[in-house]
Design goal:
There is one protein chain. By secondary structure, the protein is an alpha+beta fold. The protein folds into six domains: 213 residues, Sandwich (Immunoglobulin-like); 197 residues, Alpha-D-Glucose-1,6-Bisphosphate, Chain A, domain 4 (2-Layer Sandwich), CATH 3.30.530; 66 residues; 121 residues, C2 domain (Immunoglobulin-like, Sandwich), CATH 2.60.40.150; 131 residues, PH-domain like (Roll); 168 residues, START domain (Alpha-D-Glucose-1,6-Bisphosphate, Chain A, domain 4, 2-Layer Sandwich). It has 20 helices and 40 strands. Strands 9, 10, 11, 12, 13, 14, 15 and 16 form an eight-stranded antiparallel sheet that branches. Strands 25, 26, 27, 28, 29, 30, 31 and 32 form an eight-stranded antiparallel sheet that branches. Strands 33, 34, 35, 36, 37, 38, 39 and 40 form an eight-stranded antiparallel sheet that branches. Strand 4 and strand 5 form a beta hairpin. Helix 2 crosses helix 3 and helix 7 packs across helix 8. The radius of gyration is 42 Å and the shape is flat. It is a single-pass membrane protein. This is C2 and GRAM domain-containing protein. One of its GO terms (cellular component) is membrane.
């Protein structure tokens, strides 16, 4: 018993040399096992020993009590069974003072077997000294193993236990005569029966040997493995299927749940056929080597199909490479459904002998798709099966969960390349197809709609007054012409008549407006049924119904319709007349988006006609970054707003967000960002992305683009890292265990400013991010200040690579938050600013110094090949120490102005300033058209002083009038200081000398290359 008054009991059973044990029931004085064990009986004089033990993870397990049951007692019992009975647990020795140790409920019986099929081994010889053998079944039900200090029994609630562990049975060399014992117990041989009653056996060696030969031959026939073609073996196994159900998911969790446009048999062949290259593709993706596959074999009378695969797992950060053995066994194969259990053993890893990893592949028929194509549903689950008890279970399961999740992400991508998922065709997936099947609403007739819309007290009053006046006109006599009246003009004769006429006119005008509003609302269409266009991120919203929609009219009902807005695109529902519980059953599909959406805004309006501003009855927001997409498949969303909150209004929606291009959309997004940033962006590993998602609680479709070390400026600067992804920018810092973590959406950012170095910023440039009003309030603890408009401001400074960080941040923000019109306007403003400044370098006052000037005996057009991006430029740059030199194509930015970006690494042996070099070049022709000017802005990365300055170069290449085939090259250098440093003079001298040397080397090599080309 533990100090808490509970215990963790389990039972160990032993019969001869055979041992087994039950699962451990945690913290329970009244455990329930309900487990069955089968033992092969060697001698009838043996005893079954049942021992109850309390598990202790830190010290030796504690003995609680035991029970001994003789097999002779079971043999003498009726039907060879003692039945279900309670047995008093006994102490280890008779001298123990504590006799009350609880009871255990057992069901013990003897049974016979018809063959040696279930025996652990087959013995081909025997001796006259062998005794009878049979099998014994023992079933545990319940026990009360321990007591309190006062000797009284305590009980507690039953809890789940761990998985059953077993100890390998020692094989006995003795021979068991199962068939002979069967004849004795079943009375098929009268002589044997009489011998059994006298507990004495007399058998002839001849009959015994014949019986043994018959059984062994039969067993060998049934147990002989059968090989053949994979399809034929599956067909044979399908004939043995008895209609059993598919196995349930393993308790470890589901790692892959996907539908595919393929038949179940084809999907099964792709995954498990010997002719499939699926395993080879997975091995290449995961770095697995030495892959060896045994052929599929039918075992156990053609009822089990099995094969063994061995391979060497690639080394990871935690473990070295290890040899693994995987046994794949078909649990079900009826031609339509398939279930394969893979048991993987890796004994060479730490604690590898303590557990096996089991993965269950279930292939079922998928849902019926709208285009009548067949689909297959692949569901993969896992668990860890511990064969021995260990204290490291939690660590083992955690590591296995992470490894399997990452591995099966690669498996999913490999399958998707060979078979297109159903989610990417016709916008269908398994859950999606089921949940998007909504009942069609019965269309009401126009007369019925008019009745519901026009039934109000005002309309009824107008009709009553109108009928009343019309009846009065019919029954009254014509009035006499008097006053100013003349024939054809009948004026009111009193103020009462004037008042009645005015009321009738006002009511008539009001009724006409109601009728006009009804006709326009009825003719106002919706976006229901409009199919999405393109590939990318596809958003589908099913608007099912509304509940308790607020009303602003006196009648207590409204005419609601819903507007959905996502990434600047809107979808509008139809109008439901005079109802507080509208039923729409409409589906809206947004066109494919290149960027994953961050949120969707939902607004419910009351239709007031075309001349009135629509009145909002409530609004809501769906945040795709913070929401679990699986929970959005069927959700009730409460509405916000003064009307909606008062009425507790809500909408019933089904929302699905899918990516139809797989990993291609990620690579395309990174390529687009590379053009904006001017630097190669590498795709992060699945492990890095998984850690990023786990750190900020982000969905699996969010991936990391880049991260930078920086300081978060508050009252005191906080060291941490800034993480950038397509939809969020996050910060994480951990100082002496005090963690600061938050993220904000790009869509919530109102402005980003790049501040030059000042004394307040400790001499380093900084980035200030300003959010929109009332946005990002959950990240308020990371904000530096709140401005007068109530907007949060975040200050980031002390970047190691400020230029890359600022360019990446600005590029991602512009790609996310700016509308197409704003992007065009921003480009125009930037171009106008450049034209006003007259230089690519901007308005910063930088003193330019000529560092190179020379004449080259070739035309200027040939010299410009050094900026052409071709093989000539590559060769020369490699010779002058530029490693991994890459350049983007020239792209026009405005009339006669072209721009490109360059990146390379400088060898320290040829330059004082080693590290990575990033530059942006612009070229344009001279006013007289006699040459070109190339302006270049250069920044050094991965250098100690790289953040202190940036370089600005200006190349002027012009033909000489004095020589027909010669040109002059002049290069000027300017240094823009970003930070103050006491080494400024020394750095300036080194930069000028190093740049002059490199320029001389570049144009010398260029002259040699061009002259050699002309000579050849």
């Amino acid at each position: 018993m533990n100090m808490s008054g509970s215990c963790d009991p389990y039972v160990r059973l032993q019969l001869g040399n055979h041992r087994s044990k039950t699962k451990v029931v945690k913290k329970n004085l009244n455990p329930f096992w309900d487990e069955k064990f089968n033992f092969v009986v060697g001698e009838l004089s043996e005893e079954l020993i049942v021992t109850v033990i309390n598990e202790d993870k830190y010290f030796n397990d504690d003995f609680l009590g035991k029970v001994k049951v003789s097999l002779l007692d079971v043999l003498d019992a009726e039907n060879l069974s003692l039945g279900t009975a309670w047995y008093q647990l006994q102490p280890k020795n008779k001298k123990s003072k504590n006799k009350n140790r609880g009871e255990i409920c057992l069901n013990i019986s003897l049974s016979t077997r018809n063959s040696f099929l279930d025996a652990p081994s087959i013995i081909s010889h025997t001796s006259s000294d062998d005794l009878l053998s049979s099998s014994m079944s023992s079933e545990l039900t319940k026990e009360v193993p321990s007591r309190t200090s006062s000797g009284k029994m305590e009980s507690s609630s039953e809890l789940g236990g761990e998985e059953t562990t077993s100890i390998k049975e020692n094989k006995s060399a003795s021979t068991s005569f199962v068939d002979l014992l069967s004849q004795i117990f079943l009375g098929k041989n009268t002589d044997s029966a009489s011998v059994a009653e006298n507990k004495d056996l007399v058998l002839s060696e001849e009959s015994l040997s014949m019986s043994m030969k018959t059984d062994i031959c039969a067993d060998s026939v049934c147990n002989t493995p059968r090989e053949g073609k994979f399809e034929e073996l599956l067909a044979i196994m399908a004939t043995k299927d008895v209609g059993s159900d598919m196995p349930g998911n393993l308790p470890g969790g589901v790692v892959l749940d996907q539908c595919y446009f393929v038949t179940t048999s084809d999907l099964n062949s792709l995954l498990f056929s010997p002719d499939s290259n699926f395993l080879d593709s997975v091995a290449d993706a995961q770095g697995t080597t030495d892959l060896q596959r045994e052929p599929w074999r039918l075992l156990n009378g053609d009822s089990s199909l099995k094969r063994v695969i061995t391979y060497t797992k690639a080394a990871s950060k935690l473990i070295k490479s290890a040899r693994a053995t995987e046994e794949q066994t078909y649990l079900k194969a009826d031609g339509k459904q398939f279930a394969v259990l893979a048991s993987v053993s890796i004994p060479d890893v730490p604690y590898g002998s303590y557990f096996k990893t089991e993965v269950l592949y279930c292939i079922r028929q998928g849902p019926q798709l709208p285009n009548s194509n067949q689909s297959a549903h692949l569901l993969i689950s896992w668990r860890i099966n511990f064969v021995q008890s260990t204290m490291m279970k939690g660590m083992i399961e955690s590591g296995a969960r992470q490894g399997l999740t990452e591995s099966f992400l690669q498996v999913r991508d490999i399958i998707s390349k060979q078979i297109k998922p159903a989610a990417s065709l016709e916008d269908s997936s398994c859950d999606r197809v089921k949940n998007l099947v909504i009942p069609e609403t019965k269309k009401e007739s126009s007369l019925g709609l008019a009745f519901h819309f026009l039934r109000s007290f005002t309309v009824l009053l107008f009709l009553f007054v109108g009928i009343y006046v019309f009846a009065h006109i019919l029954i009254s006599s014509p009035s006499v012409i008097q006053g100013l009246e003349f024939i054809g003009l009948d004026l009111p004769d009193s103020l009462t008549e004037v008042l009645v006429s005015a009321v009738l006119m006002l009511q008539g005008q009001y009724i006409l407006k109601i009728i006009e509003r009804f006709l326009r609302a009825k003719g106002n269409g919706s976006d229901h049924g409009v199919k999405a266009q393109g590939d990318g991120w596809l958003l589908t919203v099913a608007l099912v119904e509304g509940n308790k929609i607020a009303a602003v009219h006196s009648c207590g009902l409204s005419d609601p319709y819903v507007v959905f807005t996502c990434n600047g695109k809107t979808k509008t529902s139809s109008i439901k007349f005079q109802t507080a519980n509208p039923i729409w059953n409409e589906i809206f599909e947004f066109d494919a988006m290149d960027d994953p959406p961050s949120r969707m805004e939902i607004i419910v309006y009351d239709f007031e006609g075309p001349s009135h501003k629509a009145l909002s009855l409530g609004h809501a927001e769906v945040n795709f970054v913070r929401s679990n997409l699986s929970k959005l498949a069927d959700v009730w969303i409460p509405l916000q707003g003064k009307f909606a909150q008062a009425c507790q209004s809500k909408l019933h929606l089904r929302i699905f967000l899918n990516n139809s291009r797989g990993n291609e959309i990620i690579t395309e997004y990174l390529t687009k960002m590379e053009k904006e940033v001017g630097k190669k962006i590498n795709l992060r590993s699945p492990q890095t992305n998984s850690g990023f998602q786990k750190l900020f609680g982000l969905p699996p479709e969010e991936f990391l683009i880049n991260d930078f070390s920086c300081h978060l400026k508050r009252k005191m600067p906080l060291q941490g890292r800034l993480f950038l992804s397509p939809r969020v920018v996050g910060f994480y810092g951990n100082i002496f265990g005090h963690k600061t973590k938050f993220f904000i959406l790009w869509d919530d950012i109102d402005d980003i400013q790049v501040i030059p170095p000042t004394l307040a910023n400790v001499g380093s440039p900084s980035i200030i991010i300003t959010l929109s009003k009332d946005r990002g309030m959950d990240a308020k603890h990371g904000a530096k200040e709140i401005d007068q408009e109530g907007r949060l401001k975040f200050h980031f400074q002390s970047f190691v690579s400020f230029n890359i960080a600022s360019r990446t941040t600005m590029a991602l923000w512009k790609a996310r938050s700016l509308t197409p019109e704003q992007k065009v306007q921003l480009v125009q403003e930037e171009s106008e600013e450049k034209e006003e400044n007259g230089s690519f370098f901007g308005s910063e006052d930088v003193k330019m110094l000529e560092v190179f000037s020379d004449g080259i005996p070739v035309a200027a057009s040939l010299v410009m090949d050094i900026f052409g991006g071709g093989p000539l430029e590559q060769r020369i740059m490699q010779k002058v120490g530029c490693v991994d030199y890459s350049s983007t194509p020239w792209q026009p930015v405005k009339s006669d102005v072209y721009q490109r970006r360059i990146s390379c690494k400088l060898e320290t042996s040829l330059s004082r300033f080693g590290g990575e070099l990033i530059s942006t070049q612009q070229k344009y022709s001279l006013p007289d058209g006699n040459g070109w000017i190339v302006e270049e802005s250069v920044s050094l990365q991965e250098h100690v002083l790289g953040d202190y300055f940036s370089l600005q170069l200006k190349y002027q290449v012009a033909d000489l009038y004095t020589a027909p085939k010669a040109c002059s090259v002049q290069v000027s250098l300017g240094i823009a200081w970003l930070k103050s440093t006491k080494h400024r003079k020394k750095l300036t001298k080194n930069i000028i000398s190093d740049t002059s040397f490199r320029l001389k080397e570049i144009f010398t090599q260029l002259e040699i290359e061009l002259l050699n080309a002309n000579t050849n």
